[in-house]
Records
---
Amino acid sequence: MRVVDASVLTSALVPNDLYYAPSRQWLDQPVADGSQIIVPTLVIPELGGAIVRRTGDPAAAARGVLWVRRLSSLWLVAIDDSLGDEATDVAMKLRLRGADAVYVALARREGVPLVTWDREQLDRTHGIIVAHTPETAP
């Protein structure tokens, strides 16, 4: 199991993205071996918005969101009061944006690594969680 940030999913769905190939290749592995990918429900609007901003194509964004929702290995976690409070604490302690803090808090709560391309999540979370890029993730 691992928490996957929207940056990885977005890169895997935008073919001209710099990180398309390693993101897609890494995502194929959990799907193939039945491992669970954990994401907060926040990932859905983040993904849709990011894809349409990069491609200008709302239909591509809708297809990307549908693809993610249909991943058999996907576990969508609602942001309840408990996770929201933990994310707030993480955001303030690590000086992270709110959305980024949700992924870190979820990884901490579940005791699993975070897979991300986000430099701040990678650089600021030492001692709180283990964070990897798709290229370095087990």
---
Amino acid sequence: MAKAPATQEIAPVGKLFIDRASEIHSMLRKAFAGKGDILFRWDAVEDMDLPVLQLLYAARKEAAQTGREFHFLGLIKDRVASRLTVSGFVAGTPLSGEELEADLVDF
């Protein structure tokens, strides 16, 4: 029986601002080099800005085009949830990656 490809998990730490966009992009490229689905863990993300969110949207699109899944998990820090809500990306305040994924506009 064939084994399912290993899930690739991305778990960045700290503030994800434009100065770290290339680092996040590298993490995503490495995950996409593997075969399994991709999980983005929010537990240690303290804050983020639009360029990083754009990378996540692009990663979701790439996953769909290659027949893979791209999902969020983990707890969302208040600062991240507030920024996404104020920016109009979500209507409510997401508490988890799963809630964020379900609520993000066109994700």
